[in-house]
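*** Query protein ***
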Amino acid sequence: MSYIIDQDKCITCGACAGACPVDAVENTESKYAINADVCIDCGSCAGECPCEAISG
């Protein structure tokens, strides 16, 4: 199971994308989303999110 970004909490800062070691975080339609096919469940994105919008 990959991590999920709560779109209501996301402030589109991009911190999660910069933290992902496998580039699983994608910017789509002015919001970020995590590609489940690429995500390795490491939690790096969640650790960098300043608004706690990412859960696993």
In short: Helices lie at 15-19, 44-48. The chain is about 20% helix and 20% strand. The two ends are 7 Å apart (CA to CA).
